[in-house]
Amino acid sequence: MNVGESINLRVRKLGLVDVKLAQGCAIFLTLIIVKLLPEIMNISIWWFIGLLFLCAIKPIYTFIGQK
Predict the structure, then answer these.
(1) For the whole model, what pTM was predicted?
(2) What's the helix, strand, coil split of the chain in %, to 5?
(3) Cα separation, 35 vs 29, whole angstroms
(4) How many Å apart are CA 53 and CA 58, to the nearest integer?
(5) Is 40 in contact with 34 (CB distance < 8 Å)?
(6) Rounded to whole angstroms, how far apart are CA atoms 47 and 54?
(7) In whole angstroms, what is the distance from residue 66 CA to residue 60 CA?
(8) Rg of the chain taking only CA atoms, in angstroms
(9) Cα(43)–Cα(34) distance, rounded to whole angstroms?
(10) How far apart are CA 54 and CA 46, in angstroms?
(11) One digit per residue, pLDDT tens: the chain, 67 residues?
């Protein structure tokens, strides 16, 4: 069993609450980084919007495109 399969098996054990708590951790980590490095927020909002769409392509394709 390779590393990818091992991680996949562990992730499948997570419930909805676990996934949402992990997302909350990611949000709070991002807020900590922004508070420590406020010059990050001087970047144009269009960079964040572009990265948002770039990161959303795969989940949207998986949700809508595949059967």
Answers:
(1) 0.59
(2) 85, 0, 15
(3) 10
(4) 10
(5) yes
(6) 10
(7) 10
(8) 16
(9) 12
(10) 12
(11) 798 888 888 888 888 888 888 888 998 998 898 889 888 778 888 888 898 888 888 877 877 875 5
Both tokens of 20, joined, read 């949402």
Contacts of 14 (CB under 8 A, 6+ apart): 22
CA-to-CA distance for 10 and 18, rounded, in angstroms?
12
Q: Measure the CA–CA gap between 21 and 27, rounded to whole angstroms.
A: 10
Q: How far is CA 10 from CA 6, 14, 44, 66, in A?
A: 6, 7, 38, 23
